[in-house]
Amino acid sequence: MSIRLNLFIIILVSIFFAHCVTTYKIGKQFSTENVAKIVIGKTTEQDILAFFGDPWKIGILNGNVVYTYCYEEWAFQRDDTIEKRGDTLVIEFDANKKVKNYYFNIPGKEPIAVSLIIHKKNMDKQQEEQMAMQNQMTTSIITQ
Question: Residue 17, Cα to own-chain centre: how many angstroms?
Fold first, then answer.
C-alpha cells in the first residue's frame, strides 16, 4: 500500500476512535403511564403486575417484598459528560400485598453510576494510549 493510503486509513481510524461514546443499558423497558394510578395502601401486587408486567428485580426490604422496574441508558461522552435516559420505579409491598411505598425516578439514587464512571475513566485512558500509539505510527509512516 502507498504511504498516502496508509496515512488516510490511520486518520480515518483515529477520527472514529476520537468520537466513540461508551453506552450502557441497564434493566428492561417498561411503560410508565400507569405510575399515576398507584395508590399507597390500595393498589395490590396483582395491580402492579397488570400495570407493569414482571419486575426487573425482586428483593426484600425490612421483611417486605420490593419490586424494581428499571431501564436506563448511560452514555459517556468523550468530553466527560454523561447522558442518562430512562426510568426507575421501586415498589415496596406490605404484609397484605398492598403498596406500602413507591419511588419513581428519584435523582441521586443511581448506585451503578460510580462503577460506570470508574470504567469510563479506564476506557478513556486506554483510548488515549491507542491514540498516542497511532500518532507514533503516523509519524513513522510520514518520515519513511
Answer: 20
Strands 57-61 and 64-76, bridge-based pairing: antiparallel
Q: pLDDT by residue (tens digit) across 106-120?
A: 655 554 544 555 566
* Residue 53 near residue 40, CB atoms below 8 Å: no
* Alpha-carbon span 65 to 62, nearest angstrom: 9
Name the helix (H) or strand (E) containing 66: strand 64-76
**CATH architecture of structural domain 17-117:** 2-Layer Sandwich (3.30)
Whether pTM > 0.70 for this model: the answer is no
In the block, which residue shows the cell 414482571? Answer: 54
What length does the chain have?
Answer: 144
CA distances from 38 to 34, 35, 88, 96, 127 (A): 7, 6, 15, 16, 46
> Hey, where are the domains in the chain?
17-117
What is the Cα–Cα distance from 131 to 137, expressed in whole angstroms? 10
Tell me the C-alpha distance between 21 and 77, whole Å. 5
